[in-house]
Each structure stands twice: as C-alpha cells, then as structure tokens.
Amino acid sequence: MACLRHWYSCKDWVCGGQWREYMDALKNWVESFTSAGIRLVFFFDGVVEDQKRQEWVKRRRRVNGEVCKIFRHIKAHGEQPGGKLFILPSGLATFTRFALRSLGQEVFCSVQEADYEIARYARRHRCMGILGQDSDFLIYDSAPYLSVAKLQVDSLTTVLYDRQRLCQAIGLAVTQLPLLACLLGNDVVSEGRMQHIRNNAITTYRKMHPAPFSGAPQGQMVLAVSRLVSSLWGRKEEETGLIPQCLNLSDPDRELLERGVRSYLLPGQEALRQGDSFPSDSAFEKYVSPEILKACREKHVAADGFMVYGVVCEGVIECSNSLEDEEDNELLPQALVYKLCRQHIYSLLLLHRHDGSITEPPAIREWFVYPGNLLREPELIHPVPVSLKCEQPSLDLLWFGTGPEVSTLRLASFFSIFDCQEFTELYGAFEDSLLAALCLVTYIALQVPALSLEDVDAYLSQAVCLRLKSPQELQQIKLPVLSSRAVQLGSLYVRGLSHLLGANSASGCPLPSAALLPWHSFDGRLFHSKYLLAHSGTEDTVLLDRDSSCLSLFLHLREKLTEACRRRSRVLQSRPNPESRYRDGHTGQPSGGGEGWRETTECHRSRGGWKERGESRQDQREYKNQESTWERGGHRGGGMRGGQRLHPHSYPYCNDGGLQNMSSPPKLSRGRSYRSRGKYWLAPRWSQPPAPGT
Q: Per mean pLDDT, which range of 349-353, 493-497, 539-543, 555-559 is the poorest?
C-alpha cells in the first residue's frame, strides 16, 4: 500500500483515477531502477489471513469515515478535497499488478501474509533490500529495510533502517525483536491485548530511570518494553521457548503471543513458523480437477488473473473501500450491483464437478465493504447458473480445450456472466476494449434503475474518445465543478472492470487481459467532463469532440446497448442531474469550441441517511426536469422529451438473483417536480446457507 501511494502521484484521484498518467509515472519509476542496473521484484497481497481479518475490518471502517468526509466536502465545495484527506482510486492494487507485468517486471501475488513472503524471498535470494513502508520489515531477520516514503527517485537515495543499530540502541538481540513487536502491538496481537504488560514495563522503567525523558512518549515505551524483553532471558532456564514462562500471561494471551512471534520466523530460523508451507490447495477440491487447482495457484502467484483463486482455493473473496456516498440512496453500492455477476462466476467455477456430475456448490464467503455493511461476519453468497444456449461447460473444457468451438464457448460464457449473450456475435466488430466497455455499461444499465440516458452517454463517449487522447491532453482537462454522483459512477465503473477480469479468468480468457484494464477504457477526468456535458444537454457531436468517426462509433455502441436493454424490458430514461449544470462556461475539454455550461439555479435536495441492514431507504430528492424515453437514433438538443418513469424500488438482481418484471408501464410523471425514490433493501445476512439462487 505504501508503494501504491508513492506511485500514484496524479493530481486527480477522486474522479476514478488518471490511469494513463499513472501508467506513464509507473513506467518512469521502473526505468529509474532498471537503468541503474537494479532488478525489481514486486509482491502484492493475495489473501487476508484469518488472524488478520479483524485488523482488516478495523482499517476498512476507518477508511469509511474518510470516504464520508470526502463526499461531504465535494457536495459542499464542488471540488476535490486537499490536505490529508486522500484515498487511492478503486482497484489500484489490482490493476497495478497487470501494469507492472505489461512493463516486463517480475510480479508475485501472495498466498500467505505478503510481508512474510517478501521477507522470505529477500532472505532466500539475498536481495539488496526491501523497499516499503512497514515496520515489520525491521522485525524480520531478512534483507535491509529501505523507506519508499523517503525515496528520491531522481537520485535513487532513501533512508535505511538499520536492524543491527536498532538492537544496539535498545539492548536486544535480533531474535528478540519479534517478541518486542508483539508486546507493542501488531496485526496479530492487538495493541490493547498487551496493555497491562506495557503498563508494568513503563512503571518499572521510570523507577529505574527517574530523570525526565526528553524524547517522544512512544520512544520511552519502546525502551521500557525492550528492557522487559531483555530481562526475560536473564536466567539460563528461561533461554528456551518463544515466550518465557516468567512473563505473567493467561493461557489465551500466551497462545496469541506465541502465534504472533512465530509469524516473524522465516524458514531456517529456530522454531519454524507454524503453517510455513503453503496452505492446502482447496476446501472445494471435489468440485474442480487437480489440473484446475494447479493452474489456479500458478496464475494467482504469477499475478495473472483475478478472483478465481480466492473462490476455488479459499472459498472467500474480499473487496476494500470504494468511493460511495452513504447519504445518496439512489445509487446502489458496487457490491450489490455486481453481486449477480459474481454469483455467475461462482457457478461457472464450481457447478460442474470434475467427475462430470452436477451438484449444488457451496456458498462463497464475501467480505465486501459498502455503506450499511458492518463487516461483523462474511456474507454467504450462493452461485447462480449462467444462461447459455447449450449446457454449461465444464471448467476443464473452458480452460484447457482447443478449437474454434471452444473459443466461441469461452466468449459466450464470458458474456453470459453479464447477461449480454448476444454480444458474442459482436466479437471482432469492435476493438476488444470497446466491446468490454459496452458489456460493462449494459450490465450497469440493467442493474441500476437510477442510471439515466445521460449517464450511459457519459460512459460510452469517454470510452470512445479516450482512444484518441494522450496522457498530456487528459491532464489538461479542466472541470468547472465536481459532481458527487459522477464520482460514485466513476468508482462503480472501475470496480466493474475488476469484475470483467474475474469473469475473463473464469471463462478461460476469451479476451486479452490488456483490453479489460482501465487505461484502455476509462479516465476519471475525461469521464467527469463527459458527465457534466451530457447532463447539461450538450449535442452528441460536441460530446464526441466534433469527431465524425467517434460519433459514428458512439452511436453504434449506444444502439447495441439500447437493443439489449429493450429485450429485457429496460427502458432508459432521460434525467438530467441539476447539480451538474453550472454557470461556468468551460466545456470540460482541453481546447476547442463547444457549448457552454447551461445556467441553472442551485437545486437543494434532502437526502436521507443509510439505515440498518434490511430496512427500506427513502430519498426526498426533488428534480426540476422532466424525464423522457430515449428515442432510438436521436440526439441531444432535439426531439421531444417526456415519457415513462422508472421506479427505483424495482431493482433487478438486488437480492433474488433474477431480473424483475419491468414490462408494465410505471406511472407517468406529472409536472416539473416529483419524487423519485422508492424502497431499497441491502442484501440479507444468513445465519444458515440460503436456498440456491439467493
């Protein structure tokens, strides 16, 4: 995480990520080392170990508070917050693995605690150093620890934390550092658990050193606990064992402390770390063949693929914080939007046992961060079969089969995960990245009834225009104001790209992974500018930068999306967002003409907060614009607007895994002011596994 913060130096982060600019920065950073003859090896967290889950939850809850502050700032000031209020774009860690691989770098994804695997690798291969920002690297008896936060890339200079000098300063041996770290508090042993030990240590230390301590209080605590640790091995009979018996601990605390100390012990060191060998392959090994298990693990370790290893080999997946406004009851959280997609992936991976039989697969444990989810326990999500014209294929056939029929089957399986089977016929008609964008936006339109025509136009137009933009042109885009709704939609799209990667991996990779990465189909500032333009009623020609080829491609994509939605009784509505229209005359484009932003008075909205899980949500949002159906082939600025109203309580796929009936005409809107909020249910928690399809 520290390296990601160091790498992502782009000015804009709240709109969803400046991915092309980020790729350029990452490339330059890597070249700074390789040109100096330094070979880099990258490690990414691949799992969250059970013993660290509570710490993971604690951090996610803390970030939730920061996300709330970010959205309040945007809604109050219409700009990105500055100072310490900063969150990395959604999916940055996931996509950075693929970025580094595309730059020819050696990348690993961990199957255990990543810090441990890094320290083990560095010790085994005698690396010159570990570049990071985690004090645990000072505790492991491994390679020297170098600070990435203090790194000056131009001169390749940084700060070295010297393990031996630290031990000399505090009077400990290197082998005693793990116990010191655990008593002070780490990811395994919480700080509060050993508070009584530290209190006794600081009391004893102050009696022995009555003179006032000139340093920071934390420094005095480190010295006090170091003196305690040093004294524990003062007698010969206490020199063996991880935790000396003279340390006054209850049995549970002693067991926890021993587990914490073992977590720092590398292969070849005394008292080997419990579970040092790789974890067992899978709790679901009866559902997949040994060849699938082997391929899963190899692809995961090589950072080639996404989501599959967690499902097949661990039975659990997690997703960190996203930029989602908990006070906006209109847009569904990404965890719920993509729930059906994940259920289809689980089915594709686990429905057919490798012996040819069909059985009910187990539920997958999901730890997904979203407003309203308290993360007290994982949600149990059952697979939902995909809809194919043929019988669902076995995983071995999808992954290892050959021939044109298998290639077509892989494509069909991929698109069926997103309920877009007809797009299989479009393969080759569009660039792979645009076909993926079309699939994703169509899926979002089907899952999010609040998605308007303007939102769809913003998504598609930025995907089309991005192909012709350089990183420099993207940086020059000026935004007159930020829309909190556009911020969440940008985050939603990027999270969808990671689900495209997971679906592609599960389907046997019918599309090249590069086509599914954000620098080919998304830029945060470009999307935000298109969103503001679309919601201000800008003509399609202006929305597409007055480029006739881009306009033609955009209209073709929009036609295919509209047809797919119509087949599923999803009627897209025009619903301009008043907060997106301002007096500022800038078009949000780096140069050239275009219509100015239309004037509007500020629209005050009353938003209700999120309630406890399972309760209904109501929004008292007032709109001042009439809705209309999208006339196929029409364009902005012309035609008559007016028509159906889509009720937000008719959320498809929200809980029951099926598309709700939208064929019956909703009530017509009357007048220029109306309420658009219905009920909203968060996914239920299950004390026992629910029936299939939930």
A: 349-353
Residue 358 phi/psi, 5-degree rounding, is -115, 130
Tokens (6 digits) for 361: 């697969």
Residue type at 7? W
Q: pTM of this prediction?
A: 0.82
Neighbours of 640 (CB within 10 A): 9
CA 318/CA 366 separation, integer angstroms: 6
* Residue type at 113 in one-letter notation: E
Element (H, E) at 75: helix 53-77
**Three-state SS annotation for 658-672:** CCCCCCCCCCCCCCC
414: three-class secondary structure by DSSP: helix
The region, left, alpha or beta by phi > 0 then psi within -120 to 50, assigned to residue 521 is alpha
Residues near 177 by beta carbon (within 8 Å), at least 6 away in sequence: 138, 139, 141, 163, 166, 167, 264
* Tens digit of each residue's pLDDT (9 = 90 or more) over 20-78: 999 999 999 999 999 999 999 999 999 999 989 999 999 999 999 999 999 999 999 99
Question: Among candidates 154, 9, 134, which has minimal Cα distance to 146?
Answer: 134
**Residues 6+ positions from 202 with CB-CB distance below 8 Å:** 220, 221, 224, 225
Tokens of 182: 């655990």
The one-letter amino acid code at 298 reads E
* pLDDT per residue as tens digits for the range 665-675: 333 333 333 33
The CA distances from residue 444 to 210, 230, 651, in Å, are 66, 59, 12
Q: What is the pLDDT of residue 355?
A: 62
Q: CA–CA separation, 466 vs 477, rounded Å?
A: 12
At 159, which amino acid appears?
V
Tell me, what's the pLDDT at 520? 95
The residue behind tokens 């007048």 is 671
> Which pLDDT belongs to residue 361?
79
- Three-state SS for 454? helix
CB atoms within 10 A of CB 318: 19
- Percentage of residues of the chain with pLDDT beyond 90: 70
| CB neighbours of residue 360 within 10 Å | 12
Going by the DSSP 8-state scheme, the letter that residue 314 receives in this structure is: I
Cβ proximity of 230 and 172 under 8 Å? yes
Q: What angle do CA 675, 543, 601 make, to 5 degrees?
A: 40
DSSP conformational letter for 312 = I
Give residues with Cβ within 8 angstroms of 187, minimum separation 6. Answer: 51, 52, 55
E-only strand ranges, 139-239: 145-147, 160-161
The b-or-e profile of 347-356 (16+ CB within 10 A means b, else e) is: bbbbbbbbee
Instruction: Provide the token pair at 129.
Output: 């150093």
For the chain, what is the mean pLDDT? 83
* 408: three-class secondary structure by DSSP: helix
pLDDT-based confidence at 285, cuts 50/70/90? confident
Question: Which residues are 379's β-sheet partners?
Answer: 366
3-state secondary structure of 366: strand
C-alpha span between 680 and 691 (Å, rounded): 22
| Six token digits for residue 464 | 């089309």
Could you give the CA distance from residue 347 to residue 657 in angstroms, rounded to a whole number?
12
The yes-or-no verdict on residue 440 having pLDDT over 80 is: yes
Q: How many CA atoms lie within 13 A of 590 on its CB side?
A: 13
Average pLDDT over residues 340-357: 85
* SS3 state of residue 628: strand
Long-range contacts at 600-608 (CB < 8 A, ≥ 24 apart): 602/578, 603/578, 603/579, 605/579, 607/327, 607/328, 607/329, 608/327, 608/329
Residue pair 672/340 in contact by the 8 Å Cβ criterion: no
Cα angle at 242 between 240 and 248, to 5 degrees?
100
Separation between Cα atoms, residue 184 and residue 171, nearest integer Å: 16
Which segments of 382-463 are extended strands (E)?
A: none
